[in-house]
C-alpha cells in the first residue's frame, strides 16, 4: 500500500484525484496549501508527494525546495502538477527539486505510470 | 648828397627797370619793346633806339620796336648788305660810328650824329641788332657803351629764352593736334567732319590763310575736294583731274610741293582764279605707296612764302589724314556692323537687367525700326498651346494693336508663323494674303521674320514702311533676322524666368505650408531659413535661429553626440533618417522622426535641409496599440487558464463516471460519457493552442535551449502519434538516417511542432501514408535539420496554401468541423520555428497530398 500526500488547493481537483487514487488502492492524505503540505510531510510518513505548484500561503516550488532541503523529507519523491504549457512552471519545478511533473488535467494512466516508476511498486 | 650822386642813383634805378622789363617779356616782340622802352627812360636818355631781328630766310633785318625813328614802322626791313647795322651781323662785335655822315653805306638814320650797333647773340649766332643813335657826333662815351652792351646781352638772353619757350609751345601744340586727330579717328565723326577738323587744325598750326583736302577717287582717277577752310568760295565737291593745279600735280608726282608764288606758277589751275592765293604748299596722302588724297595749305600774304618748315608741318598731318580717309572707307562698311553690334549689346543689357518682357520687346522693336529706318513694326508672341499669335509690342502702327491675337496663317505675321520662314512683301496692298483686319492703307511694304528657339517658334517680328519706294533688300532682311534672334532669346528668357519664378513660388509655398518642420542650413550647419511648421514645433522664431547651429539648438546634451554624427554623414552627402527626442525652446522634449538631406546645386553641396516630423501622436497611438494587443494576449492567456480549471473538473468527473459505469456494468451511460470526454478534450486542445499563440504574441513565450538527440525526439513523437494514425487507418513511415545527430534547440517546441504537423497530416488523409523524413543538411550558413511531413491526403490549392499559416485559417471554415483540430496548430508551428531561427513551408498538389517542411538550425541561439 502506497501512501500519497496530495497537496492541492482546488477542491474539485482534490476530490476527483483523491477518489480515483483511493479507488486504485492508494492511501491518500490531503493538504490544501504549501504550508500544510510541508507540515504533513514532516509529521506523517509518505511514499510520494503530488504537489500542485500554484498554492496559497506557500507555493509548490517553495514547499518542494523546503522539503528537499530537509533531510527528514528530502528522500520523498515529489511529482509536480502544473498547468498545461506552462513550460516555465515545469522547468521551475524541476529546478526546485521535483522528481517529475505532469500536467493538469491529469491523464490518470500516465500519472499512475510515473507514481509506480518513482515508488518502485 | 651831390647832384652827381643823385643822378647816379636815378640811373641805376633806370637800369634796374630796364632789366626787369626785359626779364618780364613773354615773346620776342615784348623783349624788343622793353629794350626800347628801358633805354628811352628819361634817366638814361637814349632818344633814338631801334631793335632789329634777322629774317633767316632773306637775311633782312626786320624792325621789331623803335623810338625816334620817324618814317619807319615795325616790320620795316633793312635788306642784307645795306646799312651800318649789318656790321655786327658779320663779326658779332659792337660797332661805334662817331660821325655817321662820314660813313658810306648809311641808308637810313633816326638822327644823323653818331651811331652804336650792338649785336644780339643767341647760342653763338647773331639773331639781330640794337641800333642806338645820337643827335650829335661822338655822343657816346665809355659809360654808354657799358650800359648798352649789358642791355644787348640781357635782350639776347631774353630772346633766346622766349624762343625756346615758343619752340616748346609749338611742339606741345603739334602733340595736341596729333592727339586730337587720333581721338577723332577713334570716335564716330563722319569722314567729312573729321577731315574738316583736321584741315582746320593744320591751317591753325601752320598759321596760314586756308587750306583744302581732297580724296582720290580710285574709280574715276580724280581728286574730290572734301574739306575746305577759309578758301573764300566753297570748293567742296569740286573734282580735279590728276595733274591739274597744285593738288593735281602732287597727286601725280606723289611728292610734296611748295609754290612760293602761286600767281606766277606755271601749273596754276584754271579753276583757281582767286588772286588772293599767294603761296601754296601741298602734300600727298599716302597709305603705303597708294595715294588716297592730297592736302594743301595756302597763304594770301605775299610776305609769307612757304618753305621747308611749313612742308614739314604739313607732312605731320598728311599721314593722319591718309589714315582717316582709309579708315573712313572701312568705316562706312563697318558703320552698320557697329550699329548692329550696339543694338545687340543694348538688347543683351536689357535682358540682363530689365526682365519686363513687354518693355524689352517694345525697346527692341523701336531699335529695329530705327536701325532699318522704317515707319513702324509689330512683334507678336506665339502661344504654344493655342497656336495663336498675340501682339506684344507695337511701334508707330497707327492704332496700338498690343493684345490682339491672330490665327496661324492670318496676315503677314500669321504666314510667317505657319511657314517659319521670313517674308518680304514689296507691295502689301496688293498682297493676296493680306489680313482682313489690316485696313491701314499707309502700309506699303512689309518684312517679317520668325522668332525661333531651335526649331520651335516663339514669335514673329514684322517691320512696315509707308513709302513704296523703300524696297527691302537682303541686307535689311539680315538685320531683321538679327533682331528676331534677339527677340526670340528675350521671349524665351522671359518665359524661363516666369516659369522659374512660378516654380520657385510653388516650392516656397510648399515649404511654407508644409506640416513638416523644414529648416535649411549652410555647410557649417548654421540655420539659413526655416518654415512656420519649424517655428511651431520648436517654439523658435525664424529670426531667432538664423545663423545659429541647429544641432546645439534642438538637442539635449544626451542627443547631441548622436545628432552630430548624423550631421557628419549628411555633410558627406548621405541622406539620413531617424527617430529620436529633440528639445524645444522651453527645454521640453518632443519625439520626432527626422531626415537630413544634403542640398546639391550643379553637383556641389551647398547646404543641408533638415526635416522634422512630430511623431508624439504617432508614438502614443503605437504605444496604445501595443498596450491593447498586450492586454488582449494577457486576457486570452488568463482566460484560457481560468477556463481550464472547470474543464479539468468536467473531464475528470466524466472519466470517473465512465470508470464507475464500467465497474457497475452500466454500459448504456458509457457512450454518452465518452462524448462528454471527447468534446471536453477538444475544448481543452483549443484552449491550450489559444494559450500558446497568445503567449507567443504577447512575447511571453520563452525559449529553453538544450542539447538532445534528434533520434530521441523522432522516436517520442512517433510513439505519441502512431495510435492516432493507426486509428485513422493511415500508415506512418519514418525515414531517418542511421544517426541524425544532436540538436541544440527547444525540445518541447520541436516535439510540439512535429506533433502538430503529423496530426495535421493525419486529419486530411484517409487510408493513406504519412511519412516523416529527417534530413540533416550542411549549408553555407551552417548545419540544418529539415523534417518533411508528407501525406497522400486531399492536398491544397495555391490559394489555400497562402493562408494555412495564419491563425484560425484552416483551408475551409467547414474543415474544422469535418476534420477536427483547432486551426491554430500551423500558426503556432510557424511562430515557434521562427523563434528558433528556422521556418516551416508547405507545398501541395490538390488531390495528391501535401508536404510540410520544418527547417531548423542544428544550433539555435
Short description:
The complex is a heterodimer of chains A (121) and B (861). Chain A is built from 5 helices and 5 strands; from the N terminus they run βαβαβαβαβα.
Compute the number of helices of chain A: 5
**Mean pLDDT across all amino acids of chain A:** 87
Rg of chain A is 13 Å
Oligomer: heterodimer
Runs of chain A in which pLDDT lies below 50 for 5 or more consecutive residues are: none
H/E element order of chain A: EHEHEHEHEH
Structural class of chain A: alpha/beta
The count of β-strands of chain A is 5
**Major beta-sheet overview of chain B:** 6 strands, antiparallel
Mean pLDDT metric of chain B: 81
Q: Name the structural class of chain B.
A: alpha+beta
Query: Which segments of chain B are poorly predicted (pLDDT under 50) over 5 or more consecutive residues?
Result: 181-189, 348-355
Shape of chain A: globular
Name the helicity range of chain A: 40-55%
> Termini of chain A, distance in Å?
9 Å
Please give the order of strands in the largest beta sheet of chain B: 3-2-1-6-5-4
Characterization of this structure:
With 121 residues, chain A is of the alpha/beta class. Chain A has five helices and five strands, in the order E-H-E-H-E-H-E-H-E-H. Chain B has 861 residues and is of the alpha+beta class. Chain B is built from 21 helices and 30 strands. Chain B is elongated. The chains are: A alpha/beta (121), B alpha+beta (861). Chains A and B meet through helix 1 and helix 4 of A and helix 15 and helix 16 of B.
Amino acid at each position: 500500500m502506497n501512501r500519497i500526500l496530495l497537496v492541492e488547493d482546488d477542491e474539485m481537483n482534490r476530490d476527483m484525484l483523491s477518489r480515483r487514487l483511493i479507488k486504485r488502492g492508494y492511501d491518500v492524505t490531503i493538504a490544501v496549501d504549501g504550508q500544510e503540505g510541508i507540515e504533513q510531510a514532516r509529521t506523517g510518513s509518505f511514499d510520494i508527494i503530488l504537489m500542485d505548484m500554484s498554492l496559497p500561503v506557500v507555493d509548490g516550488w517553495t514547499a518542494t525546495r523546503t522539503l528537499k532541503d530537509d533531510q527528514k523529507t528530502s528522500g520523498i519523491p515529489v511529482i509536480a502538477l502544473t498547468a498545461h504549457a506552462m513550460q516555465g512552471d515545469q522547468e521551475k519545478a524541476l529546478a526546485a527539486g521535483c522528481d517529475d511533473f505532469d500536467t493538469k488535467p491529469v491523464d490518470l494512466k500516465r500519472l499512475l505510470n510515473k507514481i509506480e516508476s518513482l515508488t518502485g511498486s | 648828397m651831390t647832384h652827381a650822386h643823385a643822378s647816379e642813383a636815378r640811373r641805376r634805378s633806370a637800369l634796374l627797370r630796364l632789366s626787369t622789363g626785359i626779364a618780364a617779356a613773354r615773346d620776342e616782340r615784348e623783349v624788343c619793346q622793353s629794350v626800347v622802352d628801358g633805354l628811352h627812360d628819361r634817366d638814361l636818355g637814349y632818344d633814338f633806339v631801334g631793335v632789329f631781328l634777322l629774317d633767316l630766310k632773306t637775311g633782312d633785318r626786320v624792325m621789331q620796336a623803335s623810338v625816334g625813328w620817324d618814317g619807319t614802322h615795325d616790320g620795316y626791313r633793312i635788306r642784307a648788305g645795306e646799312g651800318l647795322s649789318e656790321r655786327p651781323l658779320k663779326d658779332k662785335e659792337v660797332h661805334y660810328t662817331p660821325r655817321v655822315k662820314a660813313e658810306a653805306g648809311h641808308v637810313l638814320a633816326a638822327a644823323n650824329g653818331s651811331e652804336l650797333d650792338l649785336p644780339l647773340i643767341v647760342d653763338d649766332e647773331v639773331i639781330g641788332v640794337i641800333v642806338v643813335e645820337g643827335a650829335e657826333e661822338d655822343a657816346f662815351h665809355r659809360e654808354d657803351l657799358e650800359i648798352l652792351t649789358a642791355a644787348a646781352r640781357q635782350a639776347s638772353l631774353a630772346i633766346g629764352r622766349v624762343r625756346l619757350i615758343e619752340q616748346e609751345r609749338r611742339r606741345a601744340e603739334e602733340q595736341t593736334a596729333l592727339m586730337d586727330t587720333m581721338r577723332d579717328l577713334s570716335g564716330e565723326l563722319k569722314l567729312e567732319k573729321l577731315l574738316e577738323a583736321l584741315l582746320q587744325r593744320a591751317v591753325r598750326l601752320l598759321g596760314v590763310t586756308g587750306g583744302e583736302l581732297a580724296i582720290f577717287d580710285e574709280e574715276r582717277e580724280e581728286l574730290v575736294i572734301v574739306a575746305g577752310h577759309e578758301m573764300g568760295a566753297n570748293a567742296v565737291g569740286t573734282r580735279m583731274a590728276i595733274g591739274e593745279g597744285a593738288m593735281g600735280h602732287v597727286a601725280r608726282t606723289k611728292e610734296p610741293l611748295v609754290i612760293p608764288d602761286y600767281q606766277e606758277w606755271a601749273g596754276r589751275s584754271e579753276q583757281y582764279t582767286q588772286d588772293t592765293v599767294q603761296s601754296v604748299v601741298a602734300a600727298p596722302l599716302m597709305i603705303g605707296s597708294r595715294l588716297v588724297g592730297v592736302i594743301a595749305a595756302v597763304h594770301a600774304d605775299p610776305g609769307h612764302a612757304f618753305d621747308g618748315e611749313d612742308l614739314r608741318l604739313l607732312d605731320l598731318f598728311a599721314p593722319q589724314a591718309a589714315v582717316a580717309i582709309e579708315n573712313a572707307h572701312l568705316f562706312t562698311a563697318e558703320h552698320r556692323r557697329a550699329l548692329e553690334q550696339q543694338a545687340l549689346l543694348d538688347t543683351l543689357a536689357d535682358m540682363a537687367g530689365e526682365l519686363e518682357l513687354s518693355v524689352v520687346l517694345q525697346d527692341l522693336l523701336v531699335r529695329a525700326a530705327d536701325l532699318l529706318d522704317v515707319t513702324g513694326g509689330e512683334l507678336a508672341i506665339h502661344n504654344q498651346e493655342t497656336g495663336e499669335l498675340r501682339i506684344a509690342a507695337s511701334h508707330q502702327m497707327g492704332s496700338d494693336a498690343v493684345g490682339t491675337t491672330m490665327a496661324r496663317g492670318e496676315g503677314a505675321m500669321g504666314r510667317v508663323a505657319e511657314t517659319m520662314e521670313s517674308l518680304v512683301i514689296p507691295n502689301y496692298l496688293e498682297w493676296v494674303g493680306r489680313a482682313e483686319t489690316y485696313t491701314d492703307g499707309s502700309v506699303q511694304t512689309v518684312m517679317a521674320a520668325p522668332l525661333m528657339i531651335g526649331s520651335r517658334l516663339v514669335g514673329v517680328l514684322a517691320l512696315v514702311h509707308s513709302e513704296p519706294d523703300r524696297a527691302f533688300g537682303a541686307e535689311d532682311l539680315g538685320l531683321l533676322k538679327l533682331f528676331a534672334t534677339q527677340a526670340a532669346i528675350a521671349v524665351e528668357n522671359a518665359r524661363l524666368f516666369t516659369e522659374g519664378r512660378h516654380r520657385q513660388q510653388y516650392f516656397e509655398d510648399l515649404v511654407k505650408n508644409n506640416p513638416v518642420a523644414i529648416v535649411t542650413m549652410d555647410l557649417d550647419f548654421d540655420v539659413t531659413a526655416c518654415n512656420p511648421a519649424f517655428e511651431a514645433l520648436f517654439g523658435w522664431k525664424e529670426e531667432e535661429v538664423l545663423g545659429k547651429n541647429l544641432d546645439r539648438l534642438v538637442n539635449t546634451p544626451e542627443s547631441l553626440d548622436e545628432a552630430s554624427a548624423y550631421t557628419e554623414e549628411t555633410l558627406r552627402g548621405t541622406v539620413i533618417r531617424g527617430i529620436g527626442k529633440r528639445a524645444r525652446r522651453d527645454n521640453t522634449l518632443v519625439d520626432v522622426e527626422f531626415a537630413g538631406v544634403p542640398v546639391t546645386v550643379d553637383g556641389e553641396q551647398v547646404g543641408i535641409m533638415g526635416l522634422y516630423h512630430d511623431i508624439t501622436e504617432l508614438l502614443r497611438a503605437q504605444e496604445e496599440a501595443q498596450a491593447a494587443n498586450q492586454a488582449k494576449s494577457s486576457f486570452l492567456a488568463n482566460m484560457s487558464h481560468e477556463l481550464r480549471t472547470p474543464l479539468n473538473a468536467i473531464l475528470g468527473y466524466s472519466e470517473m463516471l465512465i470508470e464507475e459505469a464500467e465497474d457497475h456494468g452500466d454500459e448504456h451511460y458509457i457512450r454518452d460519457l465518452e462524448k462528454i470526454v471527447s468534446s471536453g478534450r477538444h475544448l481543452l486542445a483549443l484552449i491550450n493552442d489559444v494559450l500558446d499563440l497568445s503567449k507567443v504574441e504577447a512575447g511571453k513565450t520563452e525559449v529553453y535551449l538544450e542539447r538532445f538527440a534528434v533520434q530521441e525526439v523522432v522516436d517520442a513523437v512517433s510513439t505519441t502519434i502512431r495510435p492516432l494514425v493507426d486509428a485513422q487507418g493511415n500508415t506512418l513511415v519514418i525515414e531517418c538516417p542511421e544517426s541524425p545527430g544532436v540538436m541544440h534547440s527547444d525540445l518541447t517546441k520541436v516535439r510540439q511542432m512535429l506533433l502538430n504537423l503529423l496530426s495535421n497530416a493525419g486529419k486530411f488523409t484517409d487510408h493513406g501514408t504519412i511519412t516523416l523524413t529527417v534530413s540533416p543538411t550542411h549549408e553555407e550558413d551552417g548545419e540544418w535539420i529539415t523534417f518533411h511531413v508528407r501525406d497522400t491526403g486531399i492536398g491544397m490549392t495555391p490559394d489555400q496554401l497562402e493562408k494555412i499559416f495564419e491563425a484560425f485559417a484552416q483551408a475551409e471554415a467547414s474543415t474544422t468541423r469535418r476534420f477536427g483540430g483547432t486551426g491554430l496548430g500551423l500558426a503556432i508551428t510557424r511562430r515557434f520555428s521562427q523563434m528558433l531561427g528556422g521556418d516551416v513551408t508547405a507545398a501541395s498538389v490538390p488531390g495528391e497530398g501535401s508536404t510540410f517542411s520544418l527547417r531548423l538550425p542544428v544550433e539555435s541561439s
